[in-house]
Design a protein that fits this description.
The chain is α/β, with parallel strands linked by helices and 322 residues long. The chain contains 7 helices and 15 strands. It has 2 domains: 205 residues, 3-Layer(aba) Sandwich (Rossmann fold); 32 residues, no CATH class. The protein has an 8-stranded mixed β-sheet, sandwiched between helices. A 3-stranded antiparallel β-sheet has the order 5-6-7, with no helix packed on it. The protein has a two-stranded antiparallel sheet with strand order 2-13. β9, α4 and β10 form a beta-alpha-beta unit. About 34% of the residues have low confidence.
Length: 322
């Protein structure tokens, strides 16, 4: 897993191979064709379509958040079937009370076991190295959302920072070097061709974080860590976040950005069953379970929808190393 120098000779070309995977969202990519779904079927419905054999329930669950004055840890997990989570709030250090609207019962969850056993199941449980073995030189969000990612990086990443771009690809969405001079930029991903084509990376390596979340870096190596439109694919997000806390310097920043698009076969169950507006709370729950971070903040870029649709929404959860 040693780092290798990034090649500067490769250039992005080609397109997503047919049959490799279809990314779902307001705009659906089907090979080289793109079409907008006018029926506005929910993302979760489209994600589960055709996956009955995996045991997922096809009926969407209703879910809401209770924005009370108490400190919340929004959605920590689902215990089998479909659970309507009203709110989750911290009762004692390391313990949360989950109140569900279907049974109105309270259950205590100790730190480290807050998520149900099947929360991170996926319709396609095969190795991610197989799914990502063919390069995809595409943008997974639209121009407006890309600009929002870049703006968030510019706001929170300091000049000269050493940056780790986790689950990266052929583009990192970083501001131009003239606008934000950085120190060392290290990338990680699952496709060597994509990483080699990323001109912003000084070094990169390939590793399946779902198989092994351990990062091959010393403690306190980076000033900033980026996870861009990829958090939904982690089956061990708490373990990865603990590793991020380890490799961040004190006061270092973590930016987790995501939209409402995903590869439905690879996104974990708890993500797909959580409404768009509640997903920042789910990420906050990951961070609380991992420890090592201060209270996160959420930045939302939500384009206004018109008669012909709208742009991709983008949420960025910002957390600093304690």
């Amino acid at each position: 897993r040693s780092l290798r120098p990034a090649s500067q000779s490769d250039s992005p070309q080609g397109n997503t191979p047919a049959g490799i995977g279809v990314e779902i969202g307001p705009i659906v990519r089907d090979g080289r064709r793109r079409k907008r779904h006018s029926d506005r079927v929910s993302i979760r419905d489209r994600a589960y379509a055709g996956f009955d054999e995996h045991g997922y329930q096809m009926t969407p669950s209703r879910r809401c958040l209770d924005h009370s004055g108490r400190k919340q840890r929004h959605i920590l997990g689902m215990s089998g079937g479909t659970t309507e989570v009203v709110t989750i709030h911290q009762t004692l250090p390391g313990a949360w009370t989950m109140i569900t609207s279907d049974d109105h019962q309270r259950r205590e969850s100790e730190a480290g076991t807050a998520f149900s056993a099947n929360a991170f199941d996926r319709p396609d449980p095969s190795a991610d190295t197989l799914f990502y073995q063919s390069p995809r030189y595409v943008y997974h969000i639209d121009e407006g959302a890309v600009a929002a990612v870049t703006a968030a990086i510019r706001r929170h990443v300091p000049l000269g920072a050493d940056v780790l771009d986790l689950m990266s690809s052929w583009v990192s969405h970083l501001p131009p070097d003239a606008a934000l001079p950085l120190g060392r930029v290290v990338g990680h991903g699952l496709n060597a061709d994509e990483l080699a084509a990323n001109a912003r990376l000084d070094d990169w390596w390939v590793q399946d974080l779902n198989a092994d979340p351990t990062l091959p870096m010393a403690d306190g190596t980076f000033d900033a860590v980026l996870i861009t439109v990829s958090i939904q694919y982690l089956t061990r997000p708490v373990g990865v976040l603990r590793e991020i806390a380890r490799v961040l310097r004190p006061g270092g920043v973590l930016l987790i950005s995501f939209s409402n698009r995903m590869f439905g076969t690879k996104a974990v169950r708890i993500w797909q069953e959580t409404p768009d507006a509640a997903r920042p709370g789910l990420v906050a729950a990951y961070l609380a379970e991992a420890g090592g971070f201060g209270e996160p903040t959420v930045e939302a870029n939500l384009p206004r929808r018109g008669p012909f649709g709208g742009g991709d929404p983008l949420w960025t959860v910002v957390a600093r190393r304690a």
